[in-house]
Amino acid sequence: MSLILLGLIQGLTEFLPVSSSGHLVLAKYFLNLPLPGASFEAFLHLASVLAVIIMFKEEIIKLLKSFFFSIQQLFIGEKFSIILMKDRHSKLAWFLIISTIPAALIGYNLEKYIELLFDNILVIPLMLFITGTLLRFSDKHYRKGNKNISNINVRDALFIGLAQAVAIIPGISRSGLTVMAGMQRGLEREFAAKYSFMLSIPIILGAAFFKFEDLGSLNLDFNCLILPGIVTFASSYWAMRIFIRLLVNQKVSFLSFYLWVLALFTFLLILLKGV
Fold first, then answer.
1. Which positions ≥6 away from 166 have C-beta within 8 Å?
2. Which of 242-249's residues contact partners 24+ apart within 8 Å by CB, and which partners?
3. pLDDT of 86-102, one tens digit each?
4. Is the dihedral of CA 201, 96, 254, 22 positive or negative?
5. Whether residue 20 has pLDDT greater than 90
6. What is the residue-averaged pLDDT of the chain?
């Protein structure tokens, strides 16, 4: 049952802007839920990625076809700028790669320091409070974005990528911060959400690649992984749909109150329990 609960937490909080990493750490700390390890978390993240792939399957197929075609065009001498101008799917694929680079570099080179943050429970309520404050500000102020893939630029992609890199900190929502970064750069709200969700694919797959080899070391029967995986997949899928609806209707800021209350409640419990 604890594995199913972990799957539900991962699925709901991976794409709702409330920080899956923060919620998983709190579940371990306060509910005494046994976290089987990084490899199990990697498995749950793969289930979340599968939900993204299913939701945007047609778009992703076009992105892959255009990406490999653009490489072919580069080899025959076509200018990169011309390729991006002619094919918006190729442009989106390359921009997603550009946005992935900052988090990939920071995650790979600073892994040990990042793990120390996960071990400090006091980091979580502070970062949750910051996430809630940013959500409140962005939902109130960034209302008139009109950029889509046709008119975003490399600076936009890098800015969103830097936001994803910052979201490695536990308690900072990856989906929330990347969407807010997109909105700050003038992206349409729905396009900002779609960009954020698809941006999760390479970074999660990359992180899972380094952890997944340890999955065999888990003392779990494969059948025990099926139900948590299904729960994670289903909750991730519906969390994305809910987030898009809230974002388009400018209702995301109500999650700020949830994060503020959770941060305060968590901090008080930590004081009572002792770090």
1. 172, 177
2. 242/16, 243/15, 243/16, 243/17, 243/175, 243/193, 244/190, 244/193, 244/194, 247/179, 247/189, 247/190, 247/192, 247/193, 248/189, 248/190
3. 899 999 999 999 999 99
4. positive
5. no
6. 86
Quote the CA–CA distance of 269 and 246 in Å, as a whole number. 30
Structure tokens belonging to residue 118: 């996960």
Length of the chain: 275
Query: Which residues are paired to 147 by β-bridges?
Result: 187
User: Using an 8 Å Cβ cutoff, are 94 and 84 in contact?
Assistant: yes
Which residue(s) pair with 209 in the sheet? none
Say if residue 2 is exposed, middle or buried (CB neighbours under 10 Å; 0-12, 13-18, 19+): middle
- What are the pLDDT digits (tens) for 91-139? 999 999 999 999 888 877 877 777 777 778 888 999 999 999 999 888 7
The residue with greater pLDDT, 256 or 1, is 256
Q: Indicate if the pLDDT at residue 179 is higher than 80.
A: yes
Of the candidates 207, 208, 178, 179, the residue with the CA atom closest to the CA atom of residue 104: 207
Phi (first) and psi of residue 66, to 5 degrees: -70, -35
Question: What sign has the CA pseudo-torsion 249, 142, 81, 200?
Answer: negative
Distance CA 12, CA 175 (A): 12
Amino acid at 89: H
250 phi/psi in degrees, rounded to 5: 55, 45
